[in-house]
Design a protein that fits this description.
The chain is an alpha+beta fold and 331 residues long. 24% of the residues lie in helices and 33% in strands. The protein has a six-stranded mixed beta sheet with strand order 6-7-8-3-9-10, sandwiched between helices. Strands 16-20-17-18-19 form a five-stranded antiparallel beta sheet.
Length: 331
């Protein structure tokens, strides 16, 4: 599959905490990309680079195979439609809000009407055409904001926290729109969210941003704390987790959920981490099963349906979880 973005050791420094450090990302065309991380981690900084609003201070950024420079990067802005977290809609009808970009580009009226109608049909907002945009609900306003950029037919759509402050029905509708934009129009979609699980089921690839560093890693089992040098462990405040040797400083760890082994009894194995716990939840996860286990900390493991049946796992069952120190990302 062809790459649309390639970031190689990209660094962007605001001089504040909102920095990016040595980012290496390869984004494929017509994929949905989920970006997760806490507030202040650098998610919006990354979106600004991907939407060509900010130019990296170091590293290489390629778009469709072409390297961007200070002289040419602004010309790529028209390739991206950026919907910010709290979209601002102008006074006037929904139709006029969506039409505005085409008018500014001096597109003729007949073409404008056709394009706006097609976009509203795709987003399911035809009935809102004559509504005052300032009277819309959060979910309706988000769809109109998407329509404003979609009508200009960008290759990439970037959504900054699009699901924030929406009710469940609006979230469900917006998720289906995102899938439709990829499936029917072949758009590349990049979105940020605080919801790890939503990102995993909705996106083709998920990146986690922590303190300006970007990881292609499922950071479900993300813990904060510090190094316990005496025990060669990471102390979360609740649990000591054995980590790779020669690690002297870290504030976070993340454990790959697919590397966590669930058993009914404690295993006699070389895995250094083994904890007893109780299953508190199970959910479908892309053809597999995500199992939540409460020990001193809560862990998430991903297992096959076959393993689920063979172990006869159920909510409330007492189990052991085990994993190698090599399955832990320390940073």
């Amino acid at each position: 599959m062809t790459s649309i973005y390639q970031l190689k050791n990209v660094t962007f420094n605001y001089g504040t905490e909102f920095n990016l450090v040595d980012v290496c990302v390869d984004i494929k065309k017509s994929n949905i990309i989920g970006i997760v991380g806490p507030n202040g981690s650098g998610k919006t900084s990354l979106l600004n680079v991907l939407s060509f609003l900010s130019f990296p201070h170091a590293g290489t950024l390629l778009y469709n195979g072409k390297e961007l420079t200070l002289n040419n990067f602004r010309q790529f802005r028209k390739s991206v439609g950026y919907v910010q977290q709290s979209p601002y809609l102008l006074r006037g009808t929904v139709f006029k809000n969506i039409e505005l970009g085409l008018k500014l580009k001096k597109v003729d009226k007949e073409t404008r009407v056709k394009k706006v109608s097609e976009v509203m049909q795709l987003l399911g907002i035809n009935k809102l055409s004559n509504r005052n945009a300032r009277t819309l609900s959060g979910g309706e306003a988000q769809k109109v904001a998407i329509g404003q950029v979609l009508v200009l037919d960008p290759d990439v759509l970037i959504f900054d926290e699009p699901f924030t402050h929406l009710d469940k029905d609006s979230i469900d509708e917006l998720e289906q729109i995102v899938l439709k934009l990829k499936g029917e129009l072949g758009k590349t979609i990049i979105l940020t969210t605080h919801n790890q699980y939503q990102a995993q089921w909705l996106a083709d690839d998920v990146y986690s941003v922590i303190k300006g560093k970007v990881f292609e890693y499922q950071m479900i089992n993300l813990f904060s704390g510090g190094i316990d040098l005496k025990n060669n462990a990471f102390n979360t405040g609740k649990q000591l987790i054995i980590i790779p040797q020669d690690t002297h400083q870290a504030e976070h760890i993340a454990i790959d959920p697919k590397q966590i082994v669930i058993s009914r009894n404690k295993l006699d194995s070389s895995m250094q981490n083994s904890f007893q716990g109780k299953i508190t939840g199970m959910a479908e996860d892309n053809g597999q099963v995500k199992v939540s286990i409460a020990s001193d900390e809560e862990f998430q493991a991903i297992v096959t349906h076959k393993a689920l049946e063979e172990l006869r796992l159920s909510i409330g069952a007492e189990v052991w979880i085990s994993f190698k120190s090599s399955s832990i990302l320390v940073f």
